[in-house]
Amino acid sequence: MALPPSQRLSDNVITVTRPTLPDLEEFGKQLEEIWASRWLTNDGPFHKELEHRLAERLGVENLSLFCNGTIALLVALQTLRINSGEVITTPFTFPATAHVLHWNRVTPVFCDIEEESCNIDPSRIEELISPDTKAILAVHVYGTPCDCQAIQAIADKHGLHVIYDAAHAFGVELNGIPILRYGDLSVLSFHATKLYTTVEGGALISRTEAQRKRVNFLRNFGIADEETVVGPGINGKMNELQAAFGLLTLKGVEEEIRQRLRITEMYRDRLDGIPGIRFLKPRSDVRPNGAYFPIFIDPTRYGVSRNDLHAALKRHNILTRKYFYPLCSHYSCYSALPSSAPSRHQVAEKVAENVLCLPIYGTLEEASVEAICNLIRGLPQSAPLG
Ligand SMILES: Cc1ncc(COP(=O)(O)O)c(C=O)c1O
Q1: Is the beta carbon of 189 within 6 A of some atom in ligand 1?
Q2: Going from the N-terminus, what domains does the chain have, and what CATH number goes with each?
């Protein structure tokens, strides 16, 4: 049934992201197989194949699929038995990163970020370590790798676990090593807004086979066999329909990344030299994935504020996102924490005030990128700050 025009996204609107969908006929064939087998969930054949293929693609040995990235993060903490005390994390992230700590009865301790990478600043971590600190939960924001070596050195010195929220970092490599191999555990999100999607979905990457076993018990209510429940698990399973979908999107993921990197280059080229507009620089030690294209606006040099640019682009049907504004430390549920005081993360405060993520997805047309860049370049002349 076709949606009435009022419920459809207008063809004229450029959204910040857009999933590249697999061939509907191919998906139909997979659905026929599922209908014939009536195997809908619980480690079915599509699920098994997707776990295998993803582990292969991402260069890891122990990968467990999940219904979404948030539950995978929740289970990551439970896997390491982190269910009290404090965890040091970044305020510059999606709400899920902080909320999974709260759901595990852990107090988030917000650490400032580096301006260049937007990731947790290792030089600010040690001052936050207390006798209650259990782990560092770092985020590879926009797919830019954290300073994993520095973070690991601190963790080793103080006997802490390291968990990476790698929701943005599908396929990223640091120094030729898959980013998912760093730390104790890493978590991916396959949400529809991500460059690789299973509609909703995620994965938890463990270091060892023993850890993977524990993850898989926890993902399925703690059930070990028909009569044994080994621990207080949850339902974090991905179903067969999502796994089948994910096998098809996996076929297109290299092209999706290639196109995103091409668009990234276009943005860099067209936005270069605009006073007060900064973007992330390419790094020789990183194999990137083009997941996001954030720009950072210096309103005094650019002549227009981030919010005014956001609103102006919206008037032209271009939807950008203030990822990540507000900071997690500003949410009412966390703002009373001592580590939430804005004076403690001045870099994060500034970045959150000035960041804007521009549209990026594999099928974004070159003409759209040109139009977006022309608007950004021309806006200060047409609407300077009063
Ligand atoms: C950094 C980060 N962590 C966690 C999540 C949560 O993942 P999911 O939506 O798959 O639960 C997201 C976004 O969706 C995210 O951007």
Answers
A1: yes
A2: 24-251 (3.40.640.10), 253-382 (3.90.1150.10)
Bridge partners (DSSP) of residue 188 are: 203
- For 308-364, write each residue's pLDDT tens digit: 999 999 999 999 999 999 999 999 999 999 999 999 999 999 999 999 999 999 999
Distance 72 CA to ligand 1 centre (A): 10
Query: 117 in ligand 1 pocket by Cβ < 6 Å?
Result: no
Residue range 94-138, pLDDT digits in tens: 999 999 999 999 999 999 999 999 999 999 999 999 999 999 999
CA distance 378 to 145: 33
Q: How confident is the model at residue 6 (pLDDT cuts 50, 70, 90)?
A: very low
> What's the gap in Å between 167 CA and the centre of ligand 1?
6
Residue nearest to atom 4 of ligand 1 (CA): 96
Distance from Cα 188 to the centre of ligand 1, integer Å = 8
CA distance 238 to 122: 34
Closest CA to 97 of 130, 122, 66, 120: 120
For the purposes of burial, counting CB atoms within 10 Å of the CB of 80, is it exposed (0-12), middle (13-18) or buried (19 or more)? middle
Kindly give the distance from the C-alpha atom of residue 100 to the centroid of ligand 1, in angstroms, as a whole number: 11
Determine whether the shortest distance from the Cβ of 93 to ligand 1 is under 6 A. yes
Going from the Cα of 190 to the center of ligand 1, the distance in angstroms, rounded, reads 8
In tens, the pLDDT along 21-79 reads 999 999 999 999 999 999 999 999 999 999 999 999 999 999 999 999 999 999 999 99
How far, in Å, CA of 381 to CA of 161, rounded? 51
**For ligand 1, is residue 139 a contact (CB within 6 Å)?**
yes
